[in-house]
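Thread title: Can someone regenerate the structure for this chain?

I was given the following input by a collaborator and told the matching structure tokens would be attached. They weren't. Posting the sequence so someone can regenerate them.
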Amino acid sequence: MQTIEAPVPCGVLDIAMEAARAAGAELAARFGHSHSHDRTASERAAGAAAASVLAARRPGDAVRMRLGGDRDGAGLRWLVEPLDGAGNHRAGIPLFAVSVACEDASGTLAGVVCDPVRDHVFAAVRGGAVRIDGAPAPGAPPTAIGELMVAGGVACDSEDEARRAGKLHKRLVRRAGERRALGSAALELVWTAAGRFGACYQEQHLDAPAVDAGLFLCQRAGLRVHRLPPLEDGLAPRFLAAREPLAAELLELIGPGPKERRRAAQRPPLSAGSVADAMRRRRR
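Best answer:
Regenerated them for you:
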């Protein structure tokens, strides 16, 4: 039975692009200057610019944003990450982005990622294709796993995470071609959607606003997107975006491995609600 997608409210994608561009302009203006080292000031300025657009264009909607930009509402829900890649922005590395996603009761209906340094906007709406600055995004050519360039980062905040990250890196390097971490999950995802990377795998403690637009763009580009729970208690949530059949091969590579499967079998099973609660706690 064919699923009928809910219609997209008029102008939602234009509003998302306007909000992302407004935030991106603030980041670009502060990039490379001494005050760009103050992450909070740059992020607040970018967040305020995006919030101003949403308040003017969609005053009744809910907004979720870090640093006090949240707003309750009864309409649509906007997820805004005003500065993804804050460490890069602070250090003068030109790899950071603004991410804006819009949701209704059926899920994500529009996603936009703005790359302020290169002045590119990646956008898609429910039922539509990915576009870069209004032009269709190029599709990724078929690639064998040994020639694949995989984007994404792996959490190393704890000793357990660092140990697992080392093992995962070895498995990926043995099978996949190359691996790159940009320091911005939003850019890694949209560059994967645009065919610049063959796949994106993230295993980090990331807030939903940082990744929801990028994951939606990957889906609209025809990639398989897997949102995966942590392998163990205390480890980070994970997600993978790749084209089939590479997605299935990569799922085998990223695990869980034999030891992780044995440990998981010894623990009492988590209910679907428990997994969802754990993911929500990580995103707060």
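The two ends are 37 Å apart (CA to CA).
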